[in-house]
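Hi V.,

You were right to ask for the full record rather than a summary. Here it is.
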Amino acid sequence: MTGWRACLAILLVLLCTGPAVAGSLVDGGSATVIGIVDGDTVLLDRKIEGSNEVRLVGIQAPKLPLGRKGFKKWPLADQSKEELESLVLGQRVALKFGPRHMDRHGRLLAHLYGQGDTWVQGAMLRAGMARVYSFPDNRLQVGSMLALEMAAREDGLGIWNHPFYKIRPHQELKDLIGSFQLVEGVVVDAVKVRKTTYLNFSEDWRSDFTVSLDKRAQVMFKEAGIDPLSMKSKRIRVRGWLKKRNGPMIDVTHPEQIEVLSP
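Predicted structure:
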């Protein structure tokens, strides 16, 4: 995709996620990167808020085993780590925090800015060495991240040139339960049952792909000015971890997980 079509696609990404998330990043100090764990995690030369390990918030790089028994290395994990090394290893970086500063593993959750104010997350996404991976309590910058991810995907860079990371049609998910996927399809029906909203991708919701939004997610969509029920008959892309509930399902917790691809 080139020219005006690429610009239109990026505009659609920014529009479909609703208005910009309120708030701004806050200064978290600076430190020197002394180690690279993988393509989205670094070690600092000093502790900030009690930790010297930083998880680059908002992105997911190909995973390395990191001592996990039986864990199979994801394709391009080494290359992603090398890309991050080239960006920040041995360099002074500035940390900026969103609403949540630390994850359950005790790692800092921060945006990193390197030489020349290079936004490290943005550089990794544009190189095709990571994909957007957001959370309801740390959503700042996601609109810009989605646009950078799309540009890399359209150029076939990095992970987007490997079938492991391809966008999946909703009909091809049965063997992918337990994995993180980007899934596309047309919403056949959108219904609210008790406190949960469901986006169904076929008439047979018991076996085909479904998206679910609980009450908290619905509140976040409403705050963003988005009605999930209005997505009926629209083509969407949704990202998240696949689980099995009847058929394959992704629980959506915040608006940025869904991109509306058709008006």
